[in-house]
Amino acid sequence: MFNETLSTKMWKRFVQEGVIDSSRINKRITESWIRCKNRYVDPYRGIGRDILTGEAFERQKHRHQELLDVTRPHVEKMSTFIEDTGMIAILIDPDGYVLSMKGKKPILQYAGDINFVEGVRWTEDEVGTNAIGTAIHAKEPILVTGTEHYSMASHKWSCSAAPIHDDEGRLAGILDISCPVEQSHPNMLAIVSSIAYTVEQEWNRRREQDELELIRCTWEIAETSQPVVFLNQKQQVIFANKTVRQKMSSWSGKCDYQNLLREYEYAERKRTPVYSRRHGRLLGYCVQLGDTAMNVRYSMSLPASFPNIRFQGETGTSKAFLRVLKQIERIAQSSMNVCIRGESGTGKELVARAIHENSPQRSGPFVAVNCGAIPKDLIESELFGYAEGAFTGSRRHGYKGKLQQAHGGTLFLDEIGEIPHQMQVALLRVLQERKVVPIGSTSEIPVHIRVIAATHRDIARLVQEGKFREDLYYRLHVFPLYVPPLRERKEDIPHLIRYYCRKNKLELPVISSVMPQLLEYDWPGNIRELFNMLDRLSVCEEEDIPYVLQELFHTGAKGKASPAAPVVTTTSDSKTNSSIQRTVRAGKMTYREEIEKQSIIQALQKTNGSASAAAGLLGIPRSTFYRKLQKYNL
Fold this sequence. Notes:
The protein contains 27 helices and 19 strands. It is of the alpha+beta class. Strands 2-1-5-4-3 form a 5-stranded antiparallel beta sheet, with helices on both faces. A 5-stranded antiparallel beta sheet has the order 8-7-6-10-9. Strands 12-15-18-11-19 form a 5-stranded parallel beta sheet. A hairpin with a 3-residue loop joins strand 6 and strand 7. Helix 24 packs antiparallel against helix 25 and helix 25 crosses helix 26. The two termini are 46 Å apart.
């Protein structure tokens, strides 16, 4: 009783005054208390707030299914002892989320009083010093009992936790045994550490079994003249067929894959995932290789009639884009103005650059201007420039506008449909007279430029509506060039994926298995959407990739909605819809933004205010979700 009272006094003194007698408290507890105070953790609460439920919780468990599978049998062996002693056995992932809790119903209900439940995030940042969160931070076993917990809500608990490491020594999870202080067992920490060690040994044994199964899969591959290797999940070559081995100076049974590619000038042609027949999870990959020179020839195996032009991006082989390239070849040698029409994300600027780089003006500058991104009151100075002292805040020696900067080369006016009406008159005069008068100057400066305009809008319709000058339209629309959307050139998708992955050194073996779905999808965001999807997959954990692709393929009507669009819960609440309409009419935010805000509010309501769970429900990262909360002042 004396020790408990003393400890309570020490805790109170620290949380109230910041004073701690480190000689009388475990070093790890002291360090944790200081971290909690520096991070403004509330010592008077400590109830779980970040709780995953429903589909978000199922996804989290799926990500760590191997941890659950390896640990479950060893925890079940101790289940009788754990239940008889009034304890709870808890498995936690490296992010601090409780994946499973085993114990009798009364003790689970007692834990539920402080939201210590499955799906809760139990870290130091959430609930202060505790065995789980502190073990995650220290990566070593620890016992935290009574008032050693930083937050009052856990003062009635005694908890022992030990980390579980995978075969590469990385933190795979935490195993914890908790119980009320009065039921604590003197060997709790030893018990949980012993189980964690056994789980680690089992993890290593399973990895060895997986590698043996992967090696057995190589027996099914006949020796062919094509170079083939098998990789384990560590990207190590565990098998190389005869064609590869003959090229190598020695074969020790295992080598680094990237070193193999560099040393023997191989390039990856195709990667196929290999799954276990025992448990269904990924074992490794079967990789078909080709010589670097062969890959160059492969990427350039184009029709004999293919235009001989320079193009910075990936051309593909589709007839739709082949027509564009042939038009580029024809018009590049002339000096006529070009108007490029195409949806957003189709690569209009790349087409404009190709026209410039294959033209007589290619030694001159290529100056791009996004007319839709420049404020209307600045676009005149941006295009025409200004003289020294033209207005307050102007640069000391004036500014050379984009029209002058493009002299001797090409001026690319993207989103020309957004240019203000008064600027259309000034631009028309420049195109007619080929002279520029900067703001605040009376001197005319000759400019020799080729103008390439681009838009995703119907300029002819804007002319009919009086929003775009007809005379300027005919000046720019000398040669109309249509860039097809990705849905009209789907046979180019594999080429675009290969190009982008090589350019950015991305390894995405899952792509080959989902190529049919990628070819079926209509890509409303076009090439930009495709590349964004590849970037997103490159930072996803392998277990999350199926969910990312599922979100892509099932957002709205097939191919009609962007995967980036917010997930909106369907509701028949007319008040919500009318509120959105009123807000939009008032000009406070766009219709899309208001829908996004309402979807966030609904997600928070469904998850009882849990930001993490709401982010999971909407299918977006927590960091993105928090930024949106700040954006909408929620």
